């Protein structure tokens, strides 16, 4: 109902005579919904501004498969690399996927963990948000057999003395009729493999030899990465 000018003047005079407590109660009683909506709107705006200011852009996505990386090594793999490339650490980052576990024969208590990790790796590969993987031998065998890893001949010269001591080869499945065989559509199981160079064995590098890994540790590049030049720079940084 619209108030007349006289009624509005009466309301103003009445409000002016109220105590501070009564004024606050009056405002809250009649204007709490607009106040609530205003608070929500301001919160959204402030949150958006804060996110825009503080959000970092990943320059590389890296996964740790069956390996635990300590804080010192992780600093080298992230902050030191960003500094070497003159990235602003306030705006750029290397995003890590930690504690991923791959195994063809997981123990019963680790079965769900391995299944979940495999799904996460598959999702990140398909969404092109996984570029490099640091892994033990078991994870390396699985990633290679699954066709996840880039043939390094597409990126580096195998004769390059910087890389040649560290290049590792592994089997890649080119053809596999296991589905047809299990369905009874063919009588003979057939698998065709090829050994290709698709990782660097970093185990003897001082940085990794002193990190406390049990067994060999490998670094590979995901074959469909859209950040290939960044991966090449990452390889060079770790080797040199």
Note the main attributes of this structure.
alpha/beta; D-Maltodextrin-Binding Protein, domain 2; 45% helix
Description:
With 240 residues, the chain is an alpha/beta fold. The chain has two domains: 5-53; 58-239, Periplasmic binding protein-like II (D-Maltodextrin-Binding Protein, domain 2, 3-Layer(aba) Sandwich), CATH 3.40.190. 45% of the residues lie in helices and 20% in strands. The chain is built from eight helices and six strands; from the N terminus they run ααβαβαβαβαβαβα. The chain has helices at 5-17, 20-54, 71-84, 111-126, 137-145, 178-182, 206-209, 228-239; strands at 57-65, 92-100, 132-135, 167-176, 191-201, 218-221. Strands 2-1-3-6-5-4 form a six-stranded mixed beta sheet, with helices on both faces. β1 (57-65), α3 and β2 form a beta-alpha-beta unit. The radius of gyration is 29 Å and the shape is elongated.
Please give the structural blueprint.
Layout: H1 5-17, H2 20-54, E1 57-65, H3 71-84, E2 92-100, H4 111-126, E3 132-135, H5 137-145, E4 167-176, H6 178-182, E5 191-201, H7 206-209, E6 218-221, H8 228-239
Parallel strand pairs: 1-2, 1-3
Antiparallel strand pairs: 3-6, 4-5, 5-6
